[in-house]
Amino acid sequence: MKVRHIVLGLLSVSVIAPIFLYTDRVGNFFNPSSSRRDFLDDIAAFTLSGDTSHLNVLPQETSTVLKEPIGIVYSNHSTNAFPNEMREHKSARLLSATNEECQPQLHNPIAIRQVTDPAPANLTPILDSHSNASHHLAIKLEQQPTQSSSKIDQKEHSDNKSDRQTEPADAQVRHLKDQLIRAKVYLSLPAIKNNPHVTRELRLRIKEVSRALGDAAKDTDLPKIAFDKLKAMDQSLEKGKQIQDDCAAVVKKLRAMLHSTEEQLRVHKKQAMYLTQLTAKTLPKGLHCLPLRLTTEYYTLNSSQQNFLNLEKLEDPQLYHYAIFSDNVLAAAVVVNSTVSHAKHPSNHVFHIVTDRLNYVAMRMWFLGNPPGKATIQVQSTEEFTWLNSSYSPVLKLLGSPSMIDYYFRAHRANSDSNLKFRNPKYLSILNHLRFYLPEIFPKLNKILFLDDDIVVQKDLSGLWSLDLKGNVNGAVETCGESFHRFDRYLNFSNPLISKNFDPHACGWAYGMNIFDLEEWRRQNITEVYHRWQKLVSDM
Questions:
Q1: Which carries the bigger pLDDT value, residue 467 or residue 418?
Q2: What's the pLDDT at 407?
Q3: What does pTM read for this prediction?
Q4: Which of 19, 118, 193, 312 has its CA 20 to 30 A from that of 228?
């Protein structure tokens, strides 16, 4: 009997205990709303952080959290309890598979949102299952590669566009010119000459490309047909390339063409320099006749009208004195007028103009008829300097020598120097060497400003007379560039006398504007130094 009670007790425990253990599950079965809330909690707590494996096909991301859906869930038991404002609100459910750390990297993050109309009173919404959430996640991951591929396409398009923009404006023109050179090279090769068909075709292509190229300097100047001719020439050149397989012959021909082109360039540069020098000395017919007309007018004046005013200022050392040595009437007039127009006190400026015998009368007549305001003018001729003769100045004897005349007027220009400006015949004129005799020409002056006849003054120059030269004879503008005015450009340093006394990298100066201290000049006897070097040159 006791055994029966023990057995029945064990049976009752084994049957009743499970009922109590699963009472919560049974309650959830009868209370579905509570079950749904628990499922929402499960969804909110669902993460992928525990799984370290990622899809290799898709861009890897860090741990992704599926956030709790945002929305309002209506039930049939509580619909009437909500106020009207809550009924009009739309139900929304949002799933985002985007990690917070990855969001700044995406330009257009995609959020899948479902919006429904206000739920009727008898509607009981059913939550999406876990498989539906996975479906939304897949949509998000599939959208990412699409965005990446579109960005790559846009980048490639922008790169191609930038390449087109950086392409030279004359790329096609250069290509056509290169084709012409290649075609001419092929035509000169024996293998091509032995093929009449290819020879005729290349000659025809050369004519077509030359006609299409014309004088075009950039691609926009080319006609539309030029691109068709370019393609046709490429095909013909490819045929020639297949026939000609001797690269050594091609290289030899290209070298010969390069040498010929360089020689032609040298000749054209020399010719252009010579024509430039010739043009600089050429005057229009009207200006060429100007000295003749001025001379005629001068001799129609009375003797009293042929003299300048203010002659007492010519030797006053307290005034600003200028020296201009020129045989060009208009050039000298430009220098004088530009200086006077910018002078603060024009009446204190004195201009000493020295010219040759041929232009002396015309120069005087010009300034008599066109006086430069209150400034003082003096016009002199080299014939007035009786002390300047070949016995005193070695340069006069040297300038009249046959060798010097042949140097400056040599007919055979092929053997002349590359820099023709050093062979300008103006250097034979005494006006070009007269600057070395300033103390003799102006014996009563202490300072003088020398101006060349090819300058235009744009400011007041009176401040130069108060310039401290610190014991130097000459004050000039520095014009020493990489090669400009350097001694090795125009002195013969193969001569031991030159190499011993001069630095090849030292520089001369421009004579456009120089202030001279005549007192220091006389003290150092610069004119005698000049004579000594002239004698050395004549003995070489």
A1: 467
A2: 62
A3: 0.52
A4: 193
